Amino acid sequence: MNLGWWWRLFAGALAGFLFFHGFAATETVMNVVSIRIAPNYSFMYDAASASTLSYYDYIIVGGGTAGCPLAATLSQNATVLLLERGGSPYGNPNITKMASFGAALSDLSRSSPSQRFISEDGVINARARVLGGGSCINAGFYTRASDEYIKQAGWDGRLVNESYQWMEKSVAFEPSLGQWQSAVRDGLLEAGVMPSNGFTYDHIYGTKVGGTIFDQQGNRHTAADLLEYANPSGLTVLLHASVHKILFAIKGKRRPKAHGVVFRDATGAKHKAYLKQGSKNEIIISAGALGSPQLLMLSGVGPAQHLKSHDITVVLDQPLVGQGMSDNPMNAVFIPSPLPVEVSLIQVVGITHFGSYIEAASGENFAGGASSSPAVEYTNNLDETTFRGGFILEKVMGPISTGHLELRTRNPNDNPSVTFNYFKDPQDLQRCVQGIQTIEKIIESKAFFRFRYEFLSWPILLNMTANAPLNLLPKHYNPSMPLEVFCKDTVMTIWHYHGGCQVGKVVDLDYKVLGVDALRVIDGSTFNDSPGTNPQATVMMLGR
């Protein structure tokens, strides 16, 4: 058997698959996918058509996973302006079709719904730039936070459940498990990730089938769909509206009070929106774990010396803005299959007691579709070969390791500098090792046997994965080395990064920014840990 050929094919396929998740469906799949009719939102406009001056009860910065349900809710009894820097997700098959998952992540154009960034750790990542936020570009898994998480957050359990249910009637579905996902599920049980919890949205130790935001026809349902519950007369949504700063009233005030925003449309024209008079009126930042701390800093709320170094007038010296940045490290093993496998995203999860979550995805023709990455060198030299297989991944819960975020420029459209310090804490690293060991048990299980080649032993699979261009880090791993080296060398993101505006540090328990008035942050930047196995359900719930 020519393992050199296998390695070249494997490396290119794995790189294209994991970097861009380029799940290319067959003709049959594409033909049966129905066209989903986009909602006709009468309140949605391009920012270029907006007046240069306007007034609202609430101004929300960021029409993402939290901002959309928040806007829909507030619009029932108030006037709301929702400002989104990206465009509409509707009519873009790269967003709306499961079969095209990954195309948006590999689109590096300025109009892409995904904006790539590379952390200082050398891991390639992405942030959303579209109405609906991360729910438009993610793998779609829908699962709730644990009861313990909800209790520790100090949330009202009844209100949390009502909010989850409010969303689930529109955007959450039970997936249909194919043979490969079923084999992973059964392999998890053989590996001891017990008990079997069937299908549930709840976070329970053991193996379960979770929800998905893709319906049975493969159509994605995003946070933007929740705007259908908005009061049309109470809401204005502006697309391609890039907010440059929060305006504060300081003169005659006991402390700074947020009272307006400055934003620019796609032509560069400047607009201002102010809060109407009213004691409850507020500005709410829902710009995500990168965008929210970045906007606070650009507006003069952050570490004084850092702001001064960028010639930003300090409104409030708040050294904890941008601190506590975390990204759950993800490591995966790719398994070529001798049998055809279904195109599937995350459907099954193993919730372990040692602090790692095991998930999986599968597809065909992974060798194509990479537009730009270390992967290109591999994929460009491959024949058009249909490559069957899937990957099993482990994600570290928490994590414990944290980093920080800083401004690079004063342009809000530029990525800030962010460091996550993957595996800085040894417990994160140990959880990864145990997760990888569990993946080995799944691959060696009776349930998974027919989906792997016997000649591709576990050490070979690890070595192939370790040599693929998964990140920008130097390579050290070989089969004689411990799994700790494998974890560090092959670390990737699963896009669950959070922090930067954490509760108790930057915002209080009601998400009000400490030290200023009329300003809140509502999104994943407030989290100390990532909720559940996948955070999108809880971010939407928080907005509601």
TrEMBL record:
It comes from the Eukaryota. FAD binds at V130, V243, W495, H496, G524, P535, Q536. SUPFAM superfamilies: FAD-linked reductases, C-terminal domain (SSF54373), FAD/NAD(P)-binding domain (SSF51905). InterPro entries: FAD/NAD-bd_sf, GMC_Oxidoreductase-Related, GMC_OxRdtase, GMC_OxRdtase_N, GMC_OxRtase_C. GO terms for molecular function: flavin adenine dinucleotide binding; oxidoreductase activity, acting on CH-OH group of donors. Disulfide bonds join C432-C487. Keywords: Disulfide bond, FAD, Flavoprotein, Signal. Residues 288-302 form the Glucose-methanol-choline oxidoreductase N-terminal domain. Its cofactor is FAD. Belongs to the GMC oxidoreductase family. This is Protein HOTHEAD-like isoform X1. It comes from Gossypium australe. The lineage of its organism: Eukaryota, Viridiplantae, Streptophyta, Embryophyta, Tracheophyta.
